[in-house]
Specification:
The protein is of the alpha/beta class and 313 residues long. The chain is built from eight helices and ten strands.
Length: 313
């Protein structure tokens, strides 16, 4: 499945539109909507998200200048506190936030359409891109409302063996070894849905189930489907990538600053770009009084008695 690309909004982020992300088990993201991540309680190590830049709802003027810094991301990723920290520290830098398709997450960097990109692993960084992993996220199974397995907080992959996996089986490692439709050769020869929303429609109709990263499951939450944690499937991962050789020195510096924010660098750190605080004049230390050395002890000499002068008689 592919991800649907939203139009780019300059200086303000778009609300997450319908995701058409590839449904892959070893993949992750975080909710871009105001529904910030509660992943700690769901078994995810994703960072706590704050409100993302609000959408203006107005189209970008055709003659608008290009953004000074361009951030791309795949559906399900929450920029959270990273986007907020960047815009607060760089209020004069025109910043764009663009959601793109998963298959284009490398191209947006190699064709210089973005300066940094939050990517879904696995990701081919090649020899020209940097990549650092950020966090893991719990995979979820999406089932139609009322399904008996929804009574559990955690569903094992083996418990789904007799159901139909709607997505491509290659996206769920281990399914070929336990799925009844795979072992008996009864799986329908039908193309997998290209979009997550289409797969969710089939789940709601009772056709089968899908396994999604937690953020995508939450992003496509509906009244007629529910999701639960699924065990037996590897955690999903999100990373950030950028070009190794950046020709524009100013952009390279901004990339370094943004990656520093993602890695936890504060505005007052030695590599931050915040205005340095003026140095305070050093306080003069009070002059130390020289201590007088005590005079050496000398015993008092007794007086000699006065000699008697002889007078005339």
């Amino acid at each position: 499945m592919s991800e649907h690309q939203n139009p780019e909004s300059v200086s303000e982020s778009s609300d997450p539109a319908e995701s058409t992300s590839a449904i892959s088990a070893p993949v992750a993201g975080a909710d871009q909507a105001a529904d910030s991540l509660a992943d700690a309680s769901e078994g995810s190590d994703a960072p706590e998200a704050s409100a993302a830049p609000a959408a203006s709802g107005e189209p970008t003027p055709v003659d608008a200048p290009p953004a000074d810094f361009r951030i791309a991301y795949v559906s399900g990723v929450s920029l959270g506190k990273w986007g907020t920290a960047w815009t607060e520290r760089n209020a004069r830098v025109r910043t764009s936030f663009t959601m793109g398709e998963r298959e284009d997450q490398r191209r947006v960097l190699t064709e210089n359409l973005a300066d940094v990109s939050f990517v879904r692993l696995p990701f081919d960084r090649g020899d020209d891109l940097h990549l650092i992993k950020l966090y893991e996220e719990t995979p979820m199974v999406v089932l139609p409302k009322g399904h008996e397995l929804l009574e559990r907080a955690d569903v094992g992959l083996a418990e789904l063996a007799d159901l139909h996996l709607i997505q491509d089986p290659s996206e769920v490692p281990g399914w070929a070894e336990i799925g009844t439709e795979m072992l008996e050769g009864t799986r329908p020869d039908l193309p997998s849905p290209d979009r997550v929303s289409d797969a969710i429609e089939l789940v709601a109709a009772g056709i089968g189930f899908v396994i999604l990263p937690q953020s995508l499951a939450r992003l496509h939450d509906r009244k007629d489907v529910k999701h639960r944690r699924v065990s037996g499937v590897a955690p999903t991962e999100i990373g950030i990538a950028w070009r190794i050789d950046e020709d524009d020195a100013v952009r390279a510096e901004r990339v370094e600053d943004f990656v520093g924010i993602v890695r936890g660098r504060t505005a007052n750190s030695s590599r931050g770009r915040a205005e340095p605080e003026p140095e305070k004049p050093a306080k003069k230390k009070p002059a130390q009084q020289q201590s007088k050395k005590p005079a050496p002890f000398r015993p008092r000499q007794p007086r000699k008695p006065a000699s008697k002068k002889r007078g005339r008689r």
